[in-house]
Design a protein that fits this description.
This protein has 146 residues and is of the alpha/beta class. 43% of the residues lie in helices and 16% in strands. It has 6 helices and 5 strands. The protein binds D-ribose.
Amino acid sequence: MTAPKRIVLSSDHAAIELRQAVAKHIADQGWEVMDIGPQTPESTHYPIHGKAAADAVASGDCALGIILCGTGQGIMMAANKVPGIRCGVCSDAFSARMIRQHNDANMLSIGARVVGEGQALDIVDAFLGADFEGGRHATRVDMIES
Ligand code: RB5
């Protein structure tokens, strides 16, 4: 089965504006964006939103996910609790490319209080532009999963 070219986005209150900028950026590239919010700035709890996005990826509904909170750390921890999710926090494009190529990451987390919009969009482009290399890396990813 071919995975849909659909990507889920979610965040907590600390990253709404950056999430919306990411959504526009990747929609302009042809991705079908499933932005599951939140849409209003009230304080909320990042584990709820990390899990919701991770469920959309783990179920196969979305091929990839991008999640954001203040640091990117808490929402990443929540997403990684969902079986089948491999999510890394990235503050640079090199790491974002490598978590796809070597770790077969299916989710990317970004800290909206850590990187600016320009850097965040570079990180997103690096993540979405890279593919898993397989081979010896597949052995290691299988080890993570087991
Ligand atoms: C919210 O203030 C903040 O704790 C959250 O966005 C995130 O940085 C947690 O990891």
